Amino acid sequence: MQSQQQLLQQRRQQLAQQFTQQQQELQQRQFLQQRLLAEQWQQLQLLQQRWQLQQQRLERLTALADSGAISKLDLQLQQETTLQIQQQLAELNGSRQQLLANQAQLDGQLQRLPTEHQQQLSLLESEHSRLEQQQLELQGRQQLLLSAPVAGRVTNLIAEPGKTIAAQQPLLTILPSGTALEAVLLVPTRAFGFVEPGQRTRLRFEAFPYQRFGIYEGEVTQTGQAILLPNELDMPVPIQEPVYRVAVALESQEIRAYGSSVPLQSGMLLSADIVLEQRSLLSWLLEPISSLRGRL
User: Fold this and answer.
1) Is the Cβ–Cβ distance between 138 and 131 less than 8 Å?
2) Using CB atoms within 10 A as the burial measure, which of 127, 143, 216, 223 is most buried?
3) What span, in angstroms and rounded, lies between the C-alpha atoms of 236 and 28?
């Protein structure tokens, strides 16, 4: 883009030099034409005077020839001289008409030269404007100001300086201020049969090994009504089978670690167990008897 702008600037300078050179050449030719016309006019005036004198001489000699004072040969020579002068006048008038035509052509070229120069400059200005518009569009594509619809905290920042971004690719996530994080579980269809809202969950965060930082509680708040196929998901973990989406409310938004509280971050991976039912120890002990009674 910069090189094209430089070429346009060089073209402007070339046009200015070309205009000045052409104008000087045309003015010089015009000056020479005017000199030729002036000289030719003087020649024409002298030749016309000579022709008038020759006409007068011919009239006198004709009268003398009629009276026999001079021979017919002398008269014929004067007649030939008169014809030669007439021919010279005709040639000079023809040459003068050609010079006048050339002069008119030069005048027209000089008059059109500024207009043609301005037209060429206008084309360059149009090209310059087009390049500037392209540059603005490129700058607009390189930089785009996005305003968040809500106040909050940026999470899952994917964009980095110099990194190529694909179309439809999420660049970041904004967690609105005051919004509580929730866990999203992807439950295989084979294990989804008895999952329903209100069930308790036990969560293990990969960033905080449960052997050291413990297991955290949550509650199922929403279950998906349609299955999600692996090719429909954009997740950081591979999914090999159809799943249902299950939302879980967290009892705590932070992890107790080394005597301080560490806030949970959006995008953290976790695994979970959903408590489908609770039984007392007695019911577990009596279950074989109940099963035997059912078969009797």
Assistant:
1) no
2) 216
3) 81
Reading the block at residue 212, the tokens are 């050291």
Please tell me the distance from the alpha carbon of residue 34 to that of residue 102, in angstroms, as a whole number: 10
Q: Take residue 33 and report the two structure tokens written for it.
A: 């034409």
Of 218, 147, 156, 151, nearest to 178 by C-alpha is: 151
- In this prediction the pTM is 0.44
pLDDT for 288: 56
Q: Tell me the two tokens of residue 218.
A: 């949550």
User: Which secondary structure element, helix H or strand E, spans residue 15, and what is its range?
Assistant: helix 2-67
Which residues have CB under 8 Å from 95's CB, separation 6+?
Answer: 40
What confidence tens digit (pLDDT) does each residue in 51-96 have? Answer: 888 888 888 888 888 887 778 888 888 888 889 988 988 888 888 8
Distance CA 88, CA 164 (A): 86
DSSP 214: -
Per-position DSSP letters for 121-181, written without gaps between them: HHHHHHHHHHHHHHHHHHHHHH------SS-EEEES----TT----TT----EEEETTPPP
